[in-house]
Design brief:
Order of helices and strands: HHHHHHH
Number of helices: 7
Transmembrane segments: 23-44, 79-101, 132-158
Shape: globular
Keywords: Membrane, Transmembrane, Transmembrane helix
Protein name: Putative membrane protein YczE
Largest sheet: none
Helix content: over 70%
Pfam families: DUF6198 (PF19700)
Length: 180
């Protein structure tokens, strides 16, 4: 999504803003923000993180810089191609997040916050996740991240998409245990 120059995903915008304002590389900022979010929702929901909750920000943080160096820049591609790549990125991200939530190996940083709040409040995942994505957009842009139209599309589409995929792949709701 980053290489389309139409915007990134909302969480990516937050990470980009943290990177821009702190001087950290994008990958390191991703790992730091991710791990801080995991600690926060674990405390809020009195939930132990799953393996995926810890591995996801570390692996993503470690590979983000490499991927950005290896992927071709689509800035000069026709707009229709860039929009198609953006749509593919949104669908891939939403499907991937829904699949790993459904596998019950532990939610990612932002998804874990949404799962925790949705369970505490009795709300649907999308009802919580979409406003969290909007907070990521506002905060990331305020910290100096580059906001694009694609970011806003992703903020509105990812919650329902993740929820739809998760509902079809749920492994029996086996989330990491809640501490007593």
């Amino acid at each position: 999504m980053l290489t389309t120059h139409l915007g990134t995903d909302p969480y990516g915008l937050l990470v980009s803003g943290v990177s821009e304002s702190s001087g950290l590389s994008y990958g390191l900022a991703n790992a730091v923000v991710g791990l801080l979010l995991v600690v926060a929702w674990c405390g809020l929901g009195r939930r132990l993180p799953g393996l995926g909750s810890v591995v996801q920000p570390l692996v993503t943080g470690a590979t983000a810089n490499l991927a950005l160096d290896l992927l071709p820049d689509a800035q000069d591609a026709p707009l229709a191609v860039r929009i198609g790549l953006l749509a593919l990125g949104i669908v891939t991200m939403g499907t991937g997040a829904g699949l790993y939530l459904g596998a019950a190996l532990g939610p990612g940083p932002l998804e874990g916050a949404a799962v925790t709040v949705s369970e505490l409040r009795g709300w649907s995942f999308a009802r919580v996740y979409t406003p969290l994505l909007v907070v990521c957009v506002v905060t990331g842009a305020a910290l100096g991240g580059t906001l694009g139209a694609g970011t806003l599309v992703a903020a509105l589409c990812l919650g329902p998409l993740v929820e739809a995929v998760r509902s079809r792949t749920d492994a029996g709701g086996a989330e990491p245990p809640v501490r007593g």
